[in-house]
Design brief:
Blueprint lengths: L13 H6 L8 E4 L3 E5 L9 E5 L11 H22 L3 E5 L13 E6 L20 H8 L1
Antiparallel strand pairs: 1-2, 2-3, 3-5, 4-5
InterPro entries: Histidine_triad_HIT (IPR001310), HIT-like (IPR011146), HIT-like_sf (IPR036265)
Organism: Paenibacillus lemnae
GO molecular function, one term: catalytic activity
């Protein structure tokens, strides 16, 4: 197996072991030279997959275009397979960045979803009223 971007400083980190299948009991469903797709060890629903780049990236904006494309191509491929095998009512694709990235390595979730499965976005704890400032927010972002 070819290891991408192997560095001693990251050789034994969790992401490296998972993405490169070293000393980790992972269930790989797809991989190529850029990414590894595995079953989540704590799935929300059966078929919950994690897409991990083989090189270390913490956040989305750090990645090169080839890796980004490999991740999105895998998300489409996995979504199609999940729909064929599990016939979910839908699929949620999400990624948590910054301090919310529990692996400290970029990973994208592809989760088969079913009506009333309990998965939901919660309302914000802080009443920030961002919905009242949409025009101002757009101006900040364009």
């Amino acid at each position: 197996m070819k290891f991408v971007n192997f560095r001693l400083s990251t050789a034994f980190s969790l992401y490296f072991r998972i993405a490169n299948q070293i000393d980790a009991d992972v269930q790989v469903i797809y991989e190529n030279e850029h990414i590894c797709c595995i079953l989540d060890i704590a799935p929300f629903n059966e078929g919950h997959v994690l897409i991990l780049p083989k090189r270390h990236y913490h956040d989305l904006e750090e990645m090169d275009d080839i890796t980004l494309k490999a991740i999105m191509d895998a998300a489409v491929l996995i979504s199609k397979k999940i729909k064929l095998v599990f016939q979910p009512d839908g699929i949620t694709i999400c990624q948590n960045g910054g301090i919310f990235n529990d692996l400290t390595h970029f990973h994208m979730h592809v989760i088969p979803r079913y009506k009333n499965d309990g998965f939901r976005w919660s309302d914000p704890v802080i009443n920030h009223k961002a919905e009242t400032r949409l025009s101002e927010t757009r101006e900040k972002l364009v």
